[in-house]
Amino acid sequence: MVERAGTGAVAVAPGVGQRRRGSVIAGVAVLLGGVLGFHRLVPNWPGRIGSLIESFLPWGGLLVVALLVVALVRRSAVALVALLLPVGVWVDTFGGLLLPGEEGDGRELVVVQHNVSDENRDPAGTARALIGSGADLVALEELVDPQVAVYEKSLAADYPHHVVRGTVGLWSKHPLSGEQVVDIKPPSIEEGWSRGVRAVVHSPYGEVAAYVAHLPSVRVGMGGLASQRRDESASLLGHAIAGESVEAVVLLGDLNGVVEDRGLRPLTSQLVFAESGFAFSFPAAFPVARIDQVMARSATVGHIRTLPATGSDHLPVVARVALE
Fold first, then answer.
1. What is residue 41's DSSP assignment?
2. Strand 196-203 relative to strand 206-214: parallel, antiparallel, unpaired?
3. Beta 249-254 vs 206-214: how paired, if at all?
4. How far is Cα 159 from Cα 155, in angstroms, rounded to an integer?
5. From the CB of residue 100, how many other CB atoms can be counted at a distance below 10 Å?
6. In angstroms, rounded to a whole number, what is the distance separating the alpha carbons of residues 283 and 195?
7. Which of 94, 172, 99 is nearest to 130 (CA)?
């Protein structure tokens, strides 16, 4: 209803303004639901915007909550109905991660993945924390002198088998063989950069090819997400794993990307990842994303969780890998 005031101005009835505000909220809700459900359709240019959005998809749940609060304050039925779309998409995509996960059948390896940081001032304390997890396998990145010698000494009693190549390493309670460097160096990086290693773990449940990798870092700036090197390295790693002759594979690493990020498709297209648990691992002071990953082939990755902070800027993550 529109009334003409005495001054000649046009006044809009309160109900009309309320409906307009409800329509705006509803439009935003539909847009948010579309992004959550069809993020793969968002172009990756300019600035790899698609990958950037995918890096923070779980946090879309907070936007849903914020819109819900506004809709309730505005008492907009239209907005509340529209919010069913993003709520449903978020629950379908991430709801399973809130569940505790199923118990395994005993054919499991407990694995820990941790970027220990090349600036870690307490490598011995970090090693003790990782030993306390009871893991069968421990993968570490950013191993530099003289800290690497501390890890080797501190972990030796509990993990008698280990391999270190470049700045990455694997410690195991079970014998290892076939240790070798995995070349994941992008062409634009200088020689001497070595961040991939592979070894066969002779576990009680059969042989497992274990890969430890640290993909190049990404940066967020005015031009968007700088992830070209990370994407190239992921492609090289994916090619190596695709050619792996051992059927069972476990990948442990700081991949500098979340599993929803299309830049990791060379890996996520052929490997499974955690069925439950968010396990945000970076940065340790206020984790906003899990970039430390556990993935597998011919196996299931169960619930993934973080361990308490160490001297690193990453949190360790631990998961159970059930072999098929």
1. G
2. antiparallel
3. parallel
4. 6
5. 9
6. 20
7. 172
Return the amino acid letter for 100.
Answer: P
Question: Where is 10: in which H helix or E strand?
Answer: strand 10-12
Q: What is the pTM of this model?
A: 0.89
- Specify the DSSP class assigned to residue 111: E
| Rounded Cα–Cα distance for residues 149 and 124 (Å) | 10
C-alpha to C-alpha distances, 54 to 105, 154, 186, 229, nearest whole angstrom: 33, 38, 23, 18
Residue of 193, 198, 211, 210 whose CA lies nearest to 142: 193
Tally of CA atoms within 13 A in the half-sphere of 299 that contains its CB: 31
Structure tokens at 108: 């499991």
Closest CA to 133 of 171, 91, 169, 165: 171
* Token pair for 29: 């809700």
Cα(269)–Cα(263) distance, integer angstroms? 11
Run of H or E residues at 293: strand 292-297
Residues 195-233: tens digit of each pLDDT: 999 999 999 999 999 999 999 999 887 778 899 999 999
Q: Which of 117, 95, 99 is nearest to 304 (CA)?
A: 99
Q: Is residue 168 over pLDDT 90? A: yes
Mean pLDDT over each residue of the chain, to the nearest integer: 93
Q: How far apart are CA 107 and CA 206, in angstroms?
A: 10
Q: Which of 260, 295, 290, 288 is nearest to 274 (CA)?
A: 295
- 142 φ, ψ (degrees, to nearest 5): 60, 45
135 and 307 Cβ atoms separated by less than 8 Å: no
Cβ within 8 Å of residue 3, ≥6 positions away: 10, 11, 13
* Residues 11-20: contacts with CB under 8 Å, at least 24 apart: 18/74, 18/75, 18/76, 19/76, 19/78
Beta strands in 222-277 (DSSP E): 224-226, 249-254
The Cα 120–Cα 148 span in angstroms is 11
